[in-house]
Design goal:
Helix content is 84%, strand content 0%. It contains six helices and no strands. Helix 3 packs antiparallel against helix 4. The radius of gyration is 18 Å and the shape is globular.
Length: 162
Amino acid sequence: TAEFESGVQAASVILVWSTAVFLFAGGVLPRIVRCLGGHVYALVASLFAMAASMLAFAPACPSWLTAFCLIFLVPPSYQIVANAAFGWLEAQPTFDASQRGRLTGYLNSSLALAQAVTSICTGPVVAIAGGRIFGAFVAAAALCGLVAVAATLSLARRLGRS
């Protein structure tokens, strides 16, 4: 149908632009992390940005807002989420470079585990939400927000002790 074709074209444009932003963000990732105050702060900001982006899929949200989030928030946030742990780990004073391969394997495995849990849990979440896929986006936003709030509280407590 014409509506389907229009949707595919719009999604393709968003995909192309988000890919360009993803590649650009990867190239300037150290600068982004520095501007956000370091790996931990960048990770917290990214989790909040990801949560907001998931909520932008709400049926009541204008499509331009969803597109904006998909193009400009998700790619750099994903870069940070996928890479901040490695940067943080290597910045630790006790980091042993000879262990890099083993530790990278552990971190990569944790990302794969997160993807597996997501794929297993999405169906039941959508079913609980009455067949509306937005339920999965709300669940993802809630998880991102919960982790970001917990990290923020932990940082605040740690800063209060120093």
